[in-house]
Write a structure and sequence with these properties.
Elements lengths: L1 E9 L1 H7 L4 E4 L10 E15 L8 H9 L12 E13 H12 L12 H10 L8 E16 L6 E5 L12
Parallel strand pairs: 1-3
Antiparallel strand pairs: 1-6, 2-5, 3-4, 4-5
Helix pairs in contact: 3-4
Length: about 170
């Protein structure tokens, strides 16, 4: 079966697959359209061969997010492999999502989900993405980390990975 897949550098790939990061911000829209769009279901997360290590170990937000996901330092995260999947819900203008997240982080919303500190979740999301103008926020839900990473060569953009089936999920890391 062919599955739509995106290659993302670590630690972002693991944070998305673990559900700690709900938005991936990009400078391009996979639908090549200037309007927000509905997503396309399951999207596999491929961890790139290279890592984004610029200042990661020194940023408290990144370390805290990795710890929340059950991971240690980013050097131990898998690379060059399909590591999980998410449901691609929608794509939004990043600056609009950023305004909503800043409002939530400041406690200026009545929105609540049971068991979640909305302010803390919004502040973490803001620290893990670039919500500036002329960017897109890809919204994900139903994250899952695969029990065993699948070695695979990545590609740019949204590409197709050929798998016989989705592998089993990893047991809860927390």
């Amino acid at each position: 079966m062919k599955f739509p897949t995106i290659t993302i550098q670590q630690p972002w790939a693991s944070l998305l697959a673990a559900g700690v990061k709900r938005y991936e911000t990009r400078g391009w829209n996979p639908f090549h359209d200037e309007t927000p769009s509905v997503g396309f279901g399951v999207l596999l997360i491929h961890a790139a061969r290279s890592r984004d290590n610029i200042g990661i170990r020194h940023e408290v937000a990144y370390r805290d997010a990795l710890a929340l996901a059950g991971f240690g330092e980013s050097e131990w995260l898998p690379t060059a492999a399909i590591i999980g999947a998410v449901e691609f819900v929608a794509i939004h203008r990043a600056d609009i999502v950023g305004v909503a997240l800043r409002s939530q982080a400041a406690g200026e919303t009545a929105f609540r989900r049971s068991g979640e500190d909305v302010e803390q979740v919004a502040a973490r999301e803001l620290s893990l993405g670039n919500f500036s103008a002329n960017r897109w926020a890809w919204e994900f839900r139903r994250p899952r980390v695969f029990e065993t990473p699948i070695p695979y060569r990545g590609a740019q953009g949204v590409w197709s990975a050929e798998l016989s089936a989705l592998p089993p999920e990893k047991a809860n890391r927390q």
